[in-house]
Amino acid sequence: ASPGPTPVSAAGAVCDTTNPACVNLNSAGTFVILAQAGTTNISTSTVTGNIGTSPIASTATTGFSETMDASNTFATSSQVTGKMYASDYTAPTPADLTTAVNDSIAAYGDAAGRPAGTGANLNHGAGTIGSETLPAGTYTWGTDVSIASDLTLNGSATDVWIFQISGNLTQAAATNVILTGGALAKNVFWQIGGGAGAA
After folding, report:
1. Strand ranges for 54-96 from DSSP E
2. Residues 3 and 195: beta-carbon distance below 8 Å
3. How is 113-174 classified by DSSP, letter by letter?
4. Which residues pair with 164 in a beta bridge?
5. Contact indicator for 63, 80 with CB cutoff of 8 Å
6. Is 174 exposed, middle or buried (0-12, 13-18, 19+ CB in 10 A)?
7. Residue 180, SS3 per DSSP
């Protein structure tokens, strides 16, 4: 995705009353990618979930070979298990995307405003993480962060991870973020000041 402040988590990341530490994405949680400046797909990538692009038009999303639905409210792609939406599609898509982007901005502000990580959670690994297991908590970096090898997050279904990254986030090819112990993807939040992509 292009650089820009976008909170990233799993689709459907809606907080419940038993988990006050969660960052509530509201309608932005219905997207796995929600970009304000565009998204570029590398061939053979696959995406599971919906993709949204707003306020920029659909031409800013490239590399998916999408097919427009007859309703003109969404497109599909063989590389996406979900739907693709853009601000220049037929109503109600533009208004729905505006709401989702506003919810995304509010969630970003919430995640950025959480107290910074301290001790081992501040500038952990000097910005290079992987080949380790991280417990729930807030992790804060004033630099770029690289996931160089498989990273495991271990915790319960109500535990929350917030990664506050001032710079860019890159992930090495063929690496994974693995959840164990009952941890849920909807409770993992990447608040990234720059861009996110593959190394």
Report:
1. 61-62, 67-68, 75-77, 80-86
2. yes
3. HSPPP-GGGBSGGGGEE-SEEE-SEEEEESS-EEE-S-EEEE--TT--EEEEESS-EEE-TT
4. 140, 191
5. no
6. exposed
7. strand
Distance, in Å, from the CA atom of 135 to the CA atom of 183, rounded to the nearest integer, reads 10
The reported pLDDT for the residue numbered 14 is: 57
φ/ψ (deg, to 5) at 165: -125, 115
Q: Within a 10 A sphere around the Cβ of 18, how many other Cβ atoms?
A: 8
pLDDT at 7: 41
Spatial distance between the Cα atoms of 174 and 68, rounded to a whole number of angstroms: 31
pLDDT along the chain (199 residues), means of 10: 39 59 92 91 85 96 94 96 97 97 96 95 97 96 97 95 96 94 93 87
Q: pTM for the complete prediction? A: 0.85
